[in-house]
Amino acid sequence: MDQGKREGILASAAKLFANCGFRKASIDEIARGAGVAKGTVYLACESKEDLYYQTLLREARAWVADTLRIIDPREPADELLLRVSAYGFERIDNSPLWRDLLTGKVHELLPNWAERFGELRKLGCQPVMEILRIGISQGRFRADLDVEALAPVLQDMQLSGYLYLANKPNPDDVLRRQAAGLELVLRGILAGPVTRPLLKSL
Amino acid sequence: MDQGKREGILASAAKLFANCGFRKASIDEIARGAGVAKGTVYLACESKEDLYYQTLLREARAWVADTLRIIDPREPADELLLRVSAYGFERIDNSPLWRDLLTGKVHELLPNWAERFGELRKLGCQPVMEILRIGISQGRFRADLDVEALAPVLQDMQLSGYLYLANKPNPDDVLRRQAAGLELVLRGILAGPVTRPLLKSL
DNA sequence: TGTTGACTACTTTGGTTTTTTGGTCAGTAC
DNA sequence: GTACTGACCAAAAAACCAAAGTAGTCAACA
Fold first, then answer.
1. pTM of the model
2. Cross-strand bridge partners of residue B190
3. Span A25-55, pLDDT tens digits
């Protein structure tokens, strides 16, 4: 299986899954979009479900890479947290793929999704973990933080904005809330006192 | 409208909505369960949607009342937070009514649900607000906390367990995670240092 | 050896009929 | 007069089924 062809298939799949959702995106059309025959798609994946997962994985990796790229280790780590939080939200908000995933529309359709969902979630923690490490090495965060345990909690706090978003996506409200949560937590993880309220920097 | 009859109707509605969900629970059956005629149900509510909301409101009030009851102001407020968190989770986990609400299965069906959802959420913050006030008066929490702003953030942190729960409800994991989040936040809101890790008290 | 696309078993869709249900209100009981 | 009832209606949901579409396979092909 040629890597370029594989990438073409995943790209086409990403496009169609995002536009039509899991159900309505057909393998035929994905194959057509990638300029290959249907059989070839099945050289790149085991099933439609597997293809969907691979698509998400590809997307998640891209997101992690892009996010790590905007992290400047010279910036104060607390600023970084807020920035990455906002960036992540914006990106998720613009992607039907993630929205469907996070609002649970896919879970019902696909069996055995839990583990794979967990893997994606774990992947998504990487940027936050990186920032925590930066913060510690900057001396801004407590040195005794359990980075591995902390990252998913922070990540969840950010994702919890979707409890609202499922309803009425007013991005400003969600961001303000995220910032409030972050400020709350920061007071806990900062080695020194917070000098100014983060909310104002939005 | 007799209050006893009204209560009977709401109780019957709660039972059926919980067992069958909003759609499949029929007004006829609710009336039968309450031992009244269908017309009488419409003396207690304006529409099926309204009845559903009233049912949730009744349930929420009961939950708040029960939760406030287990709050002993002599206990350390940080313990109280953890206790109430676990209690709330357990109770929600056992109630299809709340599960449907929180996993967003109802939102799609009912228009204009956002505001009412917001009201319920606000109601649900009361116990946490109470604990924060207790903590402040105990001198365990910082005196400058913005209780009104903080409560919904904490509440959300707890609800975010449902992002997982929508999938695979392993209550222990969720509780451990909630405790980790709480411990994180507590280090921020405690006036003094945390003396022992909360996680161990689970 | 890597790719294809016709083929099959299965699922989804769309249109139609039948049944159920939310909501009303003239009428009953007290 | 008041509190409640339940037959009634329009509208929604379920049941049905034929037609169309789709996931996945594999013999043939380049």
1. 0.86
2. B141
3. 999 999 999 999 999 999 999 999 999 999 9
Which residue in A has a C-alpha nearest to residue B177's C-alpha? A153
> What is the C-alpha to C-alpha distance for residues A114 and B105, in angstroms, rounded to an integer?
19
Q: Which amino acid is at A101?
A: L
Q: Is B187 exposed, middle or buried (0-12, 13-18, 19+ CB in 10 A)?
A: middle
The tokens of A139 are what?
A: 């001396």
What are the residues facing A190 on neighbouring strands? A141
Task: Identify the three-state secondary structure at position A190.
Answer: strand
Residues 16-75 of B with CB under 7 A from strand D: 23-24, 35-40, 42-43
Nearest to B120 by CA among B147, B102, B96, B133: B102
Using the 8-state DSSP alphabet, how is residue A141 labeled?
B
3-state secondary structure of B190: strand
**Where are the alpha helices (H) located in chain A, listed in sequence order?**
3-24, 27-34, 38-44, 48-69, 77-93, 96-102, 113-124, 126-138, 147-159, 161-165, 171-189
Minimal Cα distance from A118: which residue of B? Answer: B164
Q: What is the distance between the terminal CA atoms of chain B, rounded to a whole angstrom?
A: 47
Side chain identity at residue A144, one-letter code: D
Nucleotides of C under 7 A from a protein CB: 2-6, 12-13, 20-26
B60 in helix, strand or coil?
helix
Q: Which helix (H) or strand (E) holds A153?
A: helix A147-159
Amino acid at B148: E
Tens digits of residue pLDDT in B92-115: 888 888 877 877 777 777 777 778
Phi then psi for residue A107, to 5 deg, are -50, -40
Would you state the structure tokens that stand for residue B153, as one six-digit string?
């953030």
